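The instructor's notes for this session suggest beginning with a concrete chain rather than abstract definitions. Hand out the sequence below and ask the class to guess, before any prediction is shown, which regions might be ordered.
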Amino acid sequence: MLIASIFIAVIIGILVGWAWKPKCSFPFSTFLNNSTHSSFSTSTSTTSCGDSFSHVEKDDTNSLVTEQDLGHLCKLVVEKDGGPSWFQMMDRSTPTMSYQAWRRDPESGPPQYRSRTVFEDVSPKLVRDFFWDDEFRLKWDDMLIYANTVQECALTGAMLVHWVRKFPFFCSDREYVIGRRIWNSGQAYYCVTKGVPCSSLPRHRKPKRVDLYYSSWCIRAVKSRKDSHLTACEVLLFHHEDMGIPWEIAKHGVRQGMWGAVKKFDPGLRTYEKERTSGVPLSRCALAANINTKVTEDYIRSLEDTTSNTLETENPGDSSVKPIVKNIPKLLVVGGAIVLACTLDRGLLTRTFLFGVARKFAKTGRSL
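After discussion, reveal the predicted structure:
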């Protein structure tokens, strides 16, 4: 009876695998080196603004990047946001960079990731510009194939940007409409980026838009590993997004590909530093990164001590689109992964990854 039950579950999984047309997205970029790129090119199209984005839908104030978003990031930094505990996934280092990563699984919404990256002998300002500079990002982030500044504010430095990212394996391209803004407090920069609705950028069938997107970081000077001087730079990153695939598979993929993506940061940063030193003019995004909202350290501490939680775990765009159930039966994952490996991609690496996922859940299934 047990064998028959397993056989039936696998058959159902195979049918699900054939029927499912996955359109997924991973937050890390190097599960597979992309050999082809879209014809998209970087462009900028800016419009002056007042204190907010005029093209962002004004009937939903939660879509704007506001002081509430700053407050939530501050609480994430000091781990007072009221979410579940983090558990460590990775601890790796190179001679000029160290990296640690954690994950947690909220009751609703996709997995959330927290990381701490420390770069040696670099200033927080340079690191801030590096991560904000979309034009240069195209040179080291092989997933980003299109970046357009839709709008920016000359007073606050807030931006509305449009990204298209290319994903590996059987996934289609993904589109992001992102609001972002930087606050500066002493030696620290609080950089908030989040998905926002925008009426001037209508949806299309392809590329599919990612609505639930949050990727924010705190950049500040810290002591170097070599001595006690504040010559190193720490980046605390908090990231989650709705990937559109079963979360257990997504977590396995992130774990396998994380270091391959992260180790590109440091060489990219050093190249960026050389270009800046040589006198290369700042890009539009890098110029915007230098327009910050100044806040005092006392104000940051007051935000850290507040008890409100502004994190959104539901899809802010189309409420009719529901995430795939997290606790998908494991045997269905096995069957679906086998079919995907056999029918959707003939590449050896793709099959290896999918069969690896299948084996992982098969081992779990044997213990049931």
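Then share the key points. The longest strand covers residues 174-185. The CA atoms of residues 158 and 181 lie 4 Å apart.
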